[in-house]
Amino acid sequence: QVRLVESGGSVVQAGDSLTLSCAFSGRTFNLYTMAWFRQAPGLEREFVAAISWSGGRTYVADSVKGRFTISRDNAKNTVPLIMNSLKPEDTAAYYCAAKFRGALGTTIRGYDYWGQGTQVSVSS
Fold first, then answer.
1. Would residue 101 be called left, alpha or beta, if left means φ above 0 and alpha means ψ between -120 and 50 degrees?
2. What pLDDT was estimated at residue 106?
C-alpha cells in the first residue's frame, strides 16, 4: 500500500520561501505520478502542481506559476515543493497525492493515494 507523509509546513511571513517534502513508501516510486494540492479553511481542495512518473513533465497551477516548483528525487523517494514569494493567500493545508502512472492530472478524483497534509500559514 502506498503511504505518503508530508513535512515542512510552517508559519512564515509574506515574501518568504519554504520547501515542503512528500515522502513516498510502499510501492515503486518511479511508477507513480505525484502531485500537490492545497485546501484553505472553508474552501475546496485545489490543485497546485504535478510531476509525471518519469519526472520529464510538470504542470503548475496559474495561481502559483513562477513562484512554486515541483520536482522529484527518485533516489530518496521524495517530492519537494519549493515555494517562493509566499503570499497570505497561499495559507492552506498542503497535501501530497499519487497515482499509478497516468497523465498529469489536476482533479482530486484523479489521484488514488493521499497524505495527511502539512499546514502552511503566511502572515502579511
1. left
2. 94
